[in-house]
Amino acid sequence: MTSKLYITRKAISRTLGSTAMALAAFSSAAAPVLAQGANTPLNIPANPTMFGTNDPNVRRATAIINGEIVTGTDVEQRLALIVSANGGKIDAEEKERLRMQVLRNLIDETLQIQEAKAADVPADDAQVDATYERVATQNFGQSPEAMEKYLARIGSSATSLKRQIRGELAWQNLLRRNVQPFVNISEGEVQEAIQRLQASKGTEEYRIGEIFLSANDENKAQVFANAEKIVEQLKQGGSFVAYARQYSEASTASVGGDLGWIRLAQLPSELGAAAGTMAPGQLAGPVEIRGGFSILYLIDKRQVLTADPRDALLSLKQISIEFPKGTTSDVATKRAAEFAATVKAIKGCGDAEAQANKIGATVVANDQIKARDLPGALQETLLNLPVGQTTPPFGSIEEGVRVLMLCGRDDPQVTSGPNFDEMMAQMEDDRVNKRAQTYLRDLRRDAVIEYN
């Protein structure tokens, strides 16, 4: 068994129930296979003969973990959250695979809750309720009561979400007690890391999301087909983070597949070659690598310790018109041409409102827009635009036509990188995460699990 070696920083506070670690393909040679964490070889022949049959279509939907039951209702309610996050765009076959992954996640979650309770550091009800309320208000903009109704409407429940929160908080409590106190980073290690960062100034870094699916010679074709289906779902608007949490077999599944900021040299050569041709927001894959296939999503890229123009704060005015319902294409085209001519005649931002009033256009101002938060095409246009000028008109009959006028820009300052304390915190997070993965692996190994 091998694990991914190029994992970067992952904060404990984002840890959820992790998926299984990546499985490598068995070698065709008759060499013994070492059990992870053990020193004795497993006696596995190169060409095993199976006694009896195993029907892959027979799937068990519930489990008893150390005497605690995970029911079919638990699985379905958690599954409903994922389906909703993906806009309901999941076919029956994919939903069945997702259902089994949810069960594995619930098993991990149960083990984490049980271990925290045994160590006398469980997540208490007050912690859970406070986090649930924060999720409702910050993530969904709703009150806890409205959130509960929403969850019921999509086939889930507040109980299901609170159980997930309880598992996360319990695991955090456990890591703070049993792992963090024993992680030590020396001053020399931190200084060396800072020196390496300074030496790499100006080189490109990539923030990449990955979904890794393990495969061997026997199931390679099926795994590749599954990966292609996932890519298709993502292209249709599926959430990469949600798919990574449920499908990826890398240790980054718990943080939505986010590898953090890395250089291409840190990736396997196949992935590095693919990522080097990508623009932010693009997907690549499935890419075959040792042990399986990877699907990549380029979240962002930057140059180390170099000011990124996309971090500039823009002062913008949006000038827009809308078309009444039922407007024909010819009428809309004529109105849009009139709008474009008027906009072209505007003499700077101070003249925008007066000119807009002549044609019944609306002006909205915002002077705190970060360039990188805009769509890619608009980023490039606005960063090359003189102050007082506008973008070409864009929009549709349904959404109306608009332009953005640049009224000012505050360019970003060059940063000196993380200071000593920040670098130490990053290194501690990374080391804690690695030990947390080993901790969870040991809990799985020692658990008594019955499938129903």
UniProtKB/TrEMBL annotation:
It comes from the Bacteria. Residues 1-35 form the signal peptide. Residues 203-300 form the PpiC domain. Keywords: Chaperone, Isomerase, Periplasm, Rotamase, Signal. It holds the Pfam family SurA_N. Coiled coil: none annotated. GO terms for molecular function: peptidyl-prolyl cis-trans isomerase activity. This is Parvulin-like PPIase. The lineage of its organism: Bacteria, Pseudomonadati, Pseudomonadota, Alphaproteobacteria, Sphingomonadales.
